[in-house]
């Protein structure tokens, strides 16, 4: 059961509501967002509580929710979540492209890439400063130095930037530079990291774990939402299957399903999803056709020089060409780009 | 190594070529199609054989092929395979829709469905007379009775029909009625059945096994091709993964990959791929956006009465509505419908 | 609902029972075994039918069954299925080893292998005459010639033989030679083949499909049982997962689960399950520790010469050594070998 | 290439060696363990470096390593890693049982459980104070309060304790109480956490990620080893597959493979691996038969009251009974218990 409080409810009033909720045998989970506070009543559902609680002046409404993802699901909130990052609207009618190199490696190259993806149609610049690598001996990212280069790219292009955070100790540092923080597939169930990011006042994009069910993915988003952060983007990036031609199997069906179950914007990463630049374009078209709200695409001016994920990076001309086709597909399904 | 013979090569000439191939230590696999004969030379590749064999008047060309799928791959044949079934061109610029109920259950209902899917935009009528069912106690199909009803639907609509064959003993019966024979996911590696179908003069649609790699799927097509049948359609229908929200995980990335590796037309079955009618439409759009040559869709006028796969069947109005959107997507990617 | 008839029930009496079953709205599935006949009443369960039917003299008992595998499950038959093949008891307290080369390729080698595995402790000789191969260009087996060699091995050793049948047209041929017929992983859901084998008077070993759930595997066994064959052996042989170090992931947990759900004997094939001879021995020990009733092991005197599956074949000395350790494990879990 | 230094090499000498390594174009990864220091030379292998470097007095040996897991693999260290935790030898001939409730929930119950598992044969007490839960609304553990109860259990039984750490901020706290720190399946690729644990002077048990390949699992161990911690235990706990009867598919074959590739001790968790207490016993027997060095088993005196993972917990009597059979299996494979 979820108890939604009116905006501007004071501390005392809230405690009074919590006391009443507990009197029915529930425990209370408090989730304080920017505009409203939601109290999760955890326990065996008791129908008679509704009338009692809705009689309290601080209570806007009481909702019984059957899905385990209380705040991420459509039961509590039917309308889509839409929010702005700089001038870019996420979750709205316009498809949003986030593009750029996998990792920030060289300043000149990165700034060139940023300019080119902007020209090609990207609305947000991506790049990795902290890289989760299977091997401790692989390039681990430029760390804060990389974040500074990304901030320069933002200056240069006027576009917001998105980058991954993988370390609880660097949450603050990353948040200082990034406009959107990204949680990688390997950290989707790093619950303590999620709770910290949930307390930030910055949007978070959460990738689906490579063997996470759609329900587990929404539950990971629930960790962010229930910690107070309502600006959450879901991102499908391929699941692990027996197939070996692709790096992962990009689960396009996760797009309509996540959108049906949740009000959150759903993005797709076709680069990690396939592992090969040749398949990025058809899978991007497929993602938008299936209803994705945006894409996260790796674009690198010199993929053969990349220290990380070169084989799956588009060159800027191919990216621009793809965007042209993408416009037609977006239009066909009632969206714009 | 593949030795392609000129059209109209006689028996004696062919045997002469085979003798020469064997003299290099190869064994010979003969694949006689309608228009040309191809001799597969199986064994350790010997470069010097090429000049010797190409000197023979019956030999058109000698091709060394590195992929295991010799005839299905793009190395031997670069241009796409296009063929006609009745008036319908498969593999050409136009997207082909095959639609109809999962199983033939009731004549009235089936004929009504056939008319409605034609009206909605289908070019070929689908239906099952022999049904592979997990349980021996489930409805197994009307068998020949069902085929007769399908033949009536063909009369009524003027459209070709496609149906599944799952039994070596009924190959002839099914071939007598059907315009295209379908091999189901559970029989993708029923090699003896494939060899029999490969000797037929009827097109065959082969579904990907639910845990088959793309390579194994192409190798299954190779069984058909190497037995002499060149009119083969590949059909992706979802693979088995850990996800439980969908019946299978429809692997849209298999579409661009199969089309890159093979010249054969590639179709997608979004009904079995998702298991729920709600997701059939977005996944159909995704499939076409990704390059599919056609779709195989379950449509049933009264899904709640279906003995088999009701929950994944579209009603005719929803099918017609989907086709409208599909036209826009097809156009955006340079196809028609 | 299952209606078990007394042994020796005549045709007329049986038809009388069937008529009464149908009067309750059921359809009837007749399963005639060697000793008793079982009538499956398919439809919505009606409790009041029990008393009426049990009053008929031909009816031994009426059982309501909730599992979908009516005959393979423990609800109808609690005690383990035990039967003899020649002198070998399958499903009894003694662990049964079936061993030999993957394919019959050369008579001398095969007969030598047969003698050696007998010496090493095998009770049944295995070998393949019809081989399901991913590629149409791979060695497909010696066919009937191979069966003849296997029959010679039986003569020589006095042990029963087991071999695979993969073709509906060769069921009779294989049944003429083999003591046990094997259904391979790719044919586990070749339902028409299963129904034919179900009508034979020969035991059948059915391998789990490489992506079959345990329930689907038991339902495949149900096809055999419901066609009248009660001498069925289940064989776990590895499932398809994302792991690439092994050819398949041998699902040892399927052993205790299948034994809990079903009364049928459960075997394990550690050779296909791992794909490498080095891991055959530890996995054989694990299988027996987990409760397997027997093993199906590939043993080849010259694995490096094998046309098929050499890398996963044990040499006879390693097989014999493994059997020694196996005896200790069998004893520890209350079995013998 | 790995450069092993003599014990007691001073800082200056080490820097001299590093300078020489770099002169060949390598970058250097320093891994300082308790007894010896290993310098990883990352880059293109140059054979001529070996003689030059081995001439330096500080260098014990230079090893070229082809596997990506340099320190975890058998190439650098052939003999098994054996170490002591309190009086308990890990990785030696004796099988080590770690047992106890999933989570610490109630002091009385936990202490009772600790006494009972000791009586039953456990050498180490397990329990969770910080619990990674799919839902933010589920019981998240007693945190430090739970650790204190575990410390009491150690007092009471004289046995070492193992518990999970899932939060970078609580590494120190957990390390203050625990004798072994456990990394859960969801954090196997939480690389920053691994690096922190690698710098501790406490043994770490690392569970295989539920969709991690064996190679990725060893690479995760490599993160621990290359950060300086050589007391690492690998623990297989089931992988995610399509099967739904079990919570996970316990990959017993990972045991012989991990032991072949690595010198580290390999444990198995049959409780999470199966999800049901009934299958814990057969899978424990299988694990030991396959060569496991130990088990991590959930035992709870009142499973029906457990807030977490009750269905997969053995009651103490069943645990004790299992240990009896386990002794026989251990003996059969040349181990003791």
Describe the structure.
Four copies of one chain form a homotetramer. Chain A is α/β, with parallel strands linked by helices and 337 residues long. In chain A, helix 7 links the parallel strand 11 and strand 12. In chain A, the strands form three sheets. Chain A has an eight-stranded parallel beta barrel with strand order 7-8-9-10-11-12-13-14, surrounded by seven helices. In chain A, strands 2-3-1-4 form a four-stranded antiparallel β-sheet. In chain A, strands 5-6 form a two-stranded antiparallel ribbon. Chains in contact: A-B, A-C, A-D, B-C, B-D, C-D. The interface between B and C is medium-sized, with 31 and 31 residues.
Distance from first to last alpha carbon of chain A? 39 Å
CATH architecture of the largest domain in chain A: Alpha-Beta Barrel
Average predicted local confidence, pLDDT of chain A: 94
Largest sheet of chain A: 8 strands, parallel, barrel
Count of runs of 4 or more consecutive helical residues of chain A = 11
| Full CATH superfamily name of the largest domain in chain A | Aldolase class I
| Helical amount of chain A | 25-40%
Any idea what the shape of chain A is?
Answer: elongated
Major sheet strand order of chain A: 7-8-9-10-11-12-13-14
For the record, what CATH class of the largest domain in chain A applies? Answer: Alpha Beta
Number of strands of chain A: 14
The greatest interface between two protein chains, and residues involved on each side, is:
A-B, 41 and 41 residues
Query: What's the domain count of chain A?
Result: 2
The radius of gyration computed from the alpha-carbon positions of chain A, rounded to a whole number of angstroms, is 21 Å
Q: Classify the fold: give the CATH topology of the largest domain in chain A.
A: TIM Barrel
The secondary-structure element order of chain A is: EHEEHEEEEHEHEHEHEHEHEHHEH
């Amino acid at each position: 059961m979820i108890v939604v409080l009116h905006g501007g409810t004071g501390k005392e009033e809230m405690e009074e509501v919590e006391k009443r909720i507990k009197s029915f045998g529930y425990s209370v989970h408090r989730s304080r967002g920017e505009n409203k506070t939601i109290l999760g009543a955890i326990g065996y559902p008791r129908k008679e509580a509704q009338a009692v609680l809705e009689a309290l002046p601080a209570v806007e409404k009481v909702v019984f929710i059957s899905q385990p993802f209380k705040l991420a699901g459509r039961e509590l909130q039917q309308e889509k979540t839409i929010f702005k990052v700089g001038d870019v609207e996420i979750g709205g009618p316009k498809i949003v492209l986030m593009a750029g190199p996998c990792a920030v490696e060289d300043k000149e190259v990165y700034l060139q890439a940023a300019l080119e993806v902007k020209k090609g149609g990207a609305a947000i610049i991506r790049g990795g400063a902290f890289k989760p690598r299977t091997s401790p001996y692989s390039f681990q990212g430029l760390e804060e130095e990389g974040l500074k280069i990304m901030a320069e790219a933002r200056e240069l292009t006027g576009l917001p930037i998105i980058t991954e955070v993988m370390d609880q100790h660097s949450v603050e540092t990353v948040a200082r530079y990034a406009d959107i923080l990204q949680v990688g597939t390997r950290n989707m169930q790093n619950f303590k990291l999620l709770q910290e990011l949930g307390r930030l006042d910055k949007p978070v994009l959460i990738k689906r774990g490579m063997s996470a069910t759609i329900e587990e993915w929404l539950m990971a988003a629930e960790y962010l939402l229930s910690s107070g952060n309502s600006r959450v983007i879901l991102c499908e990036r391929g699941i692990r299957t027996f197939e070996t031609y692709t790096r992962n199997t990009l689960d396009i069906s996760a797009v309509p399903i996540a959108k049906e179950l949740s009000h959150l914007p759903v993005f797709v990463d076709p680069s990690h999803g396939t592992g090969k630049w040749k398949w990025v374009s058809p899978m991007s078209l497929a993602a938008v056709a299936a209803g994705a709200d945006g894409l996260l695409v790796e674009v690198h001016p010199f993929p053969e020089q990349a220290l990380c994920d070169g084989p799956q990076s588009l060159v800027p001309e191919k990216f621009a060409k793809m965007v042209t086709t993408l416009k037609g597909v977006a239009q066909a399904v009632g969206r714009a780009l």
